[in-house]
Design brief:
By secondary structure, the chain is α/β, with parallel strands linked by helices. The chain has a single domain, classed as Rossmann fold. The chain contains eight helices and six strands. It has helices at about 15-30, 50-55, 65-75, 90-100, 100-105, 130-140, 165-170, 175-195, and strands spanning about 1-5, 30-35, 75-80, 115-120, 145, 160. Strands 1, 2, 3, 4, 5 and 6 form a six-stranded parallel sheet that branches. Strand 1, helix 1 (about 15-30) and strand 2 form a beta-alpha-beta unit. The longest helix has 21 residues, at about 175-195. The chain starts with a strand and ends with a helix.
């Protein structure tokens, strides 16, 4: 089973650390994995030109082609975002908008995959839940089944407090607990609905 993680940070730092931790844990359970890092990539915003609706592909040629391939190939998708202005990063929002070109090919193209959300804020309550809700909304729009961390805490996904640095996020044991809880649900859903 294949899991594709998207790191929505414009740099390689705390969100990358958390996503790699999640991916390493999944690999140790024999999931096949791949990660796309937004940092340093060229992903232009959707222009709403509607070329995709007519031609079944996006008119823009950039690194989004890597994301398209991996999204199609994946059974499970992890969206990992730093909190920016109380929500997801603009990098991740751009990827979400550009997904429109996939549904232009086939309305059901992502339906039935499993999705989980990771949110990393500089503040403890900096907008992590709001970012999860955006990720979960994206999953729902595309027919992707969103998982939570279960009924007792981590209800919307894995939430981290980085205090804007790598040392502190490594010590965020509560955040790591929320990641582990969400991964348990993610794995269960993958096995139940995809296997
Ligand atoms: C433009 C910008 C806006 C930010 N806004 C928030 C915010 O609203 N809430 C918050 O908790 N952290 C905010 N942060 C801090 C980052 O979420 C935090 O430093 C995070 O760990 C960065 O992830 P990264 O290391 O993967 O880039 C912001 C950072 C930037 C650059």
């Amino acid at each position: 089973m294949k899991v594709f993680g998207i790191c929505g940070s414009p740099r390689n730092n705390t969100t990358e650390y958390v996503l790699r931790n999640a991916i390493d844990k999944l690999e140790s359970k024999n999931f096949e994995t791949s990660i796309f890092f937004c940092a340093g990539k060229d992903i232009k915003p959707c222009m709403h030109c509607d070329y995709c609706l007519m031609n079944k592909k996006c008119i823009i040629e950039d690194d989004m082609s890597i994301v398209y391939e991996n999204l199609l190939d994946a059974d499970g998708i992890i969206l990992a975002t730093p909190i920016q202005s109380g929500g997801i990063s603009s990098n991740l929002a751009t990827i979400m908008d550009r997904t429109r070109a996939l549904e232009a090919v086939d309305y059901n193209i992502l339906r039935g995959k499993i999705g989980m959300s990771i949110a990393v804020g500089g503040d403890r309550t900096g907008g992590q839940d709001f970012a999860h809700l955006k990720n979960i909304t994206y999953f729902m729009i595309h027919g992707i089944i969103p998982v939570s961390g279960g009924p007792f805490g981590s209800n919307l996904g894995a939430s981290f407090w980085s205090n804007d640095n790598l040392d502190d996020i490594k010590n965020d044991s509560y955040g790591m607990e929320s990641l582990d809880r969400t991964l348990v649900e993610f794995e269960k859903f993958l096995v139940k609905y995809i296997d």
